[in-house]
Design brief:
heterodimer; A: 197 residues; alpha/beta; Rossmann fold; two-stranded antiparallel ribbon; 10 strands; 37% helix; globular; B: 793 residues; alpha+beta; Beta-Lactamase; 5 domains
Chain lengths: 197, 793
């Protein structure tokens, strides 16, 4: 189903440059893999999620103290097993938020997280999520995950996939706790929840 | 509404109309400007509104685009349903693909296939535009909006029209009310002024003044108007006075003119002379060729024989009218010198006596002509001239005949001036005709101074005097009348002259013809006794001498008779006169005796006395008649013209003839006037009428007829008096007119027997005759005649 959507909308004018590049990447992946339908759908899903990660940078404001220097990069970190492959790198390459260039960093453990703004917590961290979140407390990092139950556990934004569409679920308490300013626009399409007590 | 009709509107309406029109125009302009402004503003506002809307939508839809949430996008766009006029909206994603559209039912084809440049523009009464969807300067997509701008604009316009009309009506109402009040400020004074002016015009009353409304221009106008009225009133009064004076003058002049015109007109109409005014017609060389009758008087036609001449030309009426008429009138018209002349008009067969003068202004070239048709006079003059010529020829011939007569004749005027003489006379008297003509007879033939016994001139003078007195020829005895020779000496001559009167038609003495026979030789021979020659000639001469002698004897006898006659008359007069005195005594004393013895005398005595008185009176009448008869014989006849009608009537009424014993029926025919001695003619008529009354007195119905007839054969007027009285026997008709001849006794009819004798004597002296006709018992008619021109004696 998810694959049909682009085809359904193929009546639209030719996609812009970036889109073609993505398709080129997609084609390469399709060509290079012997993946099943599931793999293809997953690829497509993470590709979207990568764009969403990038888009978060636009709807969230970080205080200037979040950057060591004015021209310092905005860092998107991936903790645990990386589901994106190169998709995330491709998405943010050459992109800038204001004066800040975008950089992707991957962390195997929470201790490795240094200078970071957006952190995708992989499903692999389920066992030690509380430690990780505790470690991140007090730091102005937007935490994102697609693992079930993460949001209620204190991750700020969780991707929910339903009927082939990716929806956002935002734990506003967690977000408020970090002191990040999340644009109300981001809240519009999202489902708002609170942490479990 | 057209401008010309606006001129006739009352000023009030005009003012109001002006104010209302101004209000309307201002309102319209304001409304127009306001509307244009609103239109522009509303469009700008629309754009702004749409921009704002687009920005809001774009801002709201960033997340939907960023996170590809179509539901959210749909929800955002659906909020547009509040915007009634937003017909379409669409979102395109960052790749330009249609992401979402509004309304949900909108077909995909209704949207532009892809996004366009940012900004809004009006397309076909729609406002259409694109808006980039940005998040932190990053373009996430594009918003498309299509707004129906026409409908709200129309609604706005239509919505505002009733309001505009309402406002306008309100404003006009207010303007009307205000202008009604305000226009009075101007119109009232003007209307008041106009009213005053109208009053003045209608009633001609210049004493009216307008009320001054204030000190503005209208006030000044009113003041000027009033001043003007003052002036007019003053001028008017002056003018009226002058007009009245002038009118009076004109009326007088007019009446005068009218009178003189009427006079002139009646003169013009009634004068017997022809009168006309003509207009001369000239050719291009200023030669008179014709004339036209401008006006003519009633006598015109009588004098010219031309009818309907007025307005016509002379050449038209008489083409052959002589050129001299035109020349004369043309000259008068040009020079203005009047002319009087007589001339002939052949075609009219008339002569005219004309006075013509220029009439009116010289440039009118009119001539007035006063004229008379003198054709009759002219012909008469012509005839007279002819007769005169013939007469003078006859005169000459008669003169020549007279001069060459064999006898010795001299013609004298009653003043004894020599008129002419026969050649024989001149030869016998040794004179020339030229030397004696127009000279006194006795100057030419004086006495012979050497013959103291010459009585020729004296006798001649006496004879001529007799002729002059009696108008009867006078034969003179043989006279010795010596003739002066041309050398001055005298030659002895004996003459036998006869002087004959030549009487004029009126019986007056005109000439005396003095005819003589030279008997000198005969006298000489007789004196010398030379009667030797016997024979016829001797016998003739003897007879002549005998005649001469008897003539001389007759003359002598005449002279004696004349003397005897005179003595007889003197005697009869004195006898008559002396006889009257004793007669009066007889009558007078007889009367006295009758009075004094009235009681004593018996009837017989009284009858005797009456007889004495009657006889005395009869004797007196006889003597009176005799005296009268004798006077008639001597008295000079002094003829004057007499109205016999009046004379006869006066005699009948005043002469006591009406007191006849029986009323007389008078039949009196009109009588002609005659020349006669009035006293004598009265005597004639009295005697005849008195006789008629007297002798018809015994008829049962006395009738007296008086009449006359003209006897052309004898050139006499014959008068008669006819009665139906006693009449007479025609055998004694010759005795009727004799003195003392009576056919009836005094006892039968009163009378002296002198009346008819007197009548005959008077009539004879007037050159007339008397006669009578009658029958015994059948009335009598007495005639007398008078010559047409009574002879003067």
């Amino acid at each position: 189903m998810a694959l049909l959507n682009p085809i359904a909308t193929a009546a639209c004018p030719p996609p812009p440059m970036r889109r073609s590049r993505r398709l080129a990447v997609l084609a390469l992946l399709l060509a290079g893999a012997t993946a099943a339908w599931a793999q293809t759908a997953a690829f497509r899903e993470y590709q979207l999620k990568a764009v969403f990660l990038f888009n978060f940078a636009q709807f969230v404001e970080w205080p200037s103290s979040a950057y060591p220097e004015p021209g310092a990069p905005l860092v998107i970190g991936v903790l645990g097993e990386d589901p994106f492959g190169t998709t995330l790198d491709d998405t943010v390459r050459d992109e800038m938020i204001g004066p800040h260039p975008l950089v992707v960093q991957r962390y195997r453990r929470a201790e490795e997280i240094g200078h970071c703004h957006i952190l995708f917590i992989s499903q692999s961290e389920t066992g030690r999520l509380e430690q990780v979140l505790a470690r991140l407390r007090g730091r102005q990092i937007l935490t994102v995950s697609d693992a079930p139950g993460y949001a209620v556990r204190g991750v700020m934004i969780r991707f929910i996939t339903e009927r082939g569409r990716i929806r956002l679920r935002i734990n506003l308490d967690a977000a408020k706790a970090t002191g990040l300013v999340i644009s109300s626009k981001l809240l519009r399409p999202a489902e708002i929840i609170t942490s479990e007590k | 509404m057209t401008v010309p009709s606006l001129q006739h509107l009352p000023i009030q309406r005009k003012l109001m109309l002006i104010m209302l029109v101004i209000t309307l125009v201002v309102m319209g302009l304001m409304r127009g400007a306001f509307f244009a402004y609103e239109y522009t503003i509303s469009r700008q506002a629309l754009v702004r509104q749409l921009t704002t809307l687009g920005e809001i939508l774009a801002a709201n839809s960033t997340a939907a685009l960023a996170f590809e949430n179509k539901d959210d996008a749909q929800e955002i766009l659906s909020a547009l349903k509040a915007e009634r006029y937003l017909v379409a909206a669409a979102l395109y994603d960052g790749d330009g693909r249609l992401f979402s559209s509004y309304p949900a039912t909108l077909p995909a084809a209704a949207c532009p296939p892809g996004p366009g440049p940012d900004g809004y523009r009006f397309v076909d009464s729609h406002l259409v535009g694109f808006q980039s969807v940005l998040q932190r300067d990053r373009k996430l997509g594009t918003l498309y909006l299509k707004f129906d701008s026409g409908t709200p604009m129309r609604e706005f316009i239509w919505g505002s029209v009733p309001i505009a009309i309402g406002v306008m009506a309100l404003v006009l109402l207010v303007a009307y009310l205000v202008s009604r009040r305000l226009q009075r400020q101007i119109s009232q004074p003007i209307l008041a002024l106009a009213g005053t002016a109208r009053t003045i015009t209608e009633h001609r009353d210049y004493s009216v003044r307008a009320v001054k409304p204030g000190n503005d221009e209208l006030g000044q106008l009113t003041e000027s108007f009033n001043q003007m009225l003052d002036e007019i009133q003053k001028l008017n009064a002056d003018l009226e006075k002058r007009v009245a004076e002038r009118t009076a003058q004109l009326e007088t002049a007019n009446a005068e003119l009218q009178r003189s015109r009427t006079d002139l007109r009646s003169l013009f109409e009634s004068i017997d002379e022809g009168y006309c005014i003509i207009e001369m017609l000239f050719d291009k060389d200023n030669r008179p060729v014709d004339y036209r009758f401008l006006s003519i008087n009633p006598a015109f036609e009588k004098h010219t024989g031309l009818s309907g001449a007025q307005g016509r030309r002379m050449r038209e009426l008489a083409p052959e009218h002589e050129a001299h008429w035109f020349e004369t009138y043309g000259r008068i018209a040009l020079t203005g010198e009047p002319a009087r002349f007589q001339n002939h008009a052949e075609q009219l067969h008339r002569w005219f006596d004309v006075y013509a003068f220029r009439y009116g202004n010289p440039e009118n070239r009119q001539v007035a002509i006063l004229f008379t048709d003198i054709t009759g006079r002219r012909q008469a003059e012509e005839k007279i001239r002819e007769l005169n010529q013939r007469l003078s020829t006859q005169n000459r011939q008669l003169g020549a005949i007279f001069e060459s007569l064999p006898g010795l004749c001299l013609v004298l005027t009653p003043d004894l001036v020599i008129v002419t003489a026969t050649d024989a006379y001149l030869k016998a008297t040794m004179t020339e005709r030229e030397n004696i003509r127009n000279r006194n007879l006795f100057e030419v033939f004086p006495d012979n101074p050497n013959d103291p016994a010459a009585d020729g001139p004296r006798n001649l003078r006496a004879s001529l005097d007799r002729v002059r007195q009696t108008a009867a020829p006078d034969t003179m005895a043989i006279q010795k009348y010596d003739v002066r020779r041309p050398d001055g000496s005298f030659e002895e001559r004996f003459w036998s002259p006869i002087n004959s009167p030549v009487l004029g038609a009126d019986g007056r003495l005109e000439y005396i013809v003095h005819r003589v026979e030279d008997v000198t030789e005969f006298v000489h021979r007789k004196n010398a006794g030379t009667e030797s020659e016997m024979g016829l000639r001797t016998r003739l001469e003897r007879m002549e001498a005998e005649v001469f002698r008897s003539a001389q004897q007759i003359q002598a006898a005449n002279r004696q008779l004349e003397v005897a006659n005179k003595e007889l008359e003197a005697f009869s007069y004195s006898v008559s006169h002396d006889l009257r005195a004793p007669l009066r005594h007889i009558d007078g004393f007889a009367g006295l005796l009758r009075k004094s013895t009235a009681t004593v005398l018996d009837d017989q005595g009284r009858r005797y006395l009456d007889t004495i008185s009657g006889a005395a009176r009869q004797m007196g009448r006889l003597i009176d008649d005799l005296l009268s008869f004798s006077r008639m014989g001597r008295a000079q006849v002094q003829p004057v013209e007499i109205d016999q009608d009046a004379l006869v009537a006066a005699i009948i009424h005043e002469g006591g003839l009406m007191k006849a014993p029986r009323p007389v029926e008078w039949i009196i025919a009109p009588l002609p006037r005659v020349r006669a001695d009035p006293a004598m003619l009265r005597q004639v008529w009295f005697n005849l009428l008195d006789n008629a009354v007297k002798y018809s007195g015994k008829s049962p119905a006395p009738r007296i007829e008086v009449g006359h007839q003209h006897d052309a054969a004898t050139c006499e007027q014959v008068f008669f008096v006819r009665d139906n009285g006693a009449g007479f026997d025609m055998r004694y008709v010759d005795k009727l007119f004799g003195v003392f001849q009576r056919l009836h006794g005094p006892a039968e009819f009163e009378g002296t027997g002198i009346g008819l004798a007197n009548v005959r004597r008077i009539v004879t002296r007037h050159g007339g005759r008397t006669w009578a006709e009658g029958r015994v018992g059948a009335g009598a008619t007495f005639f007398f005649s008078l010559p047409d021109q009574p002879v003067q004696t």
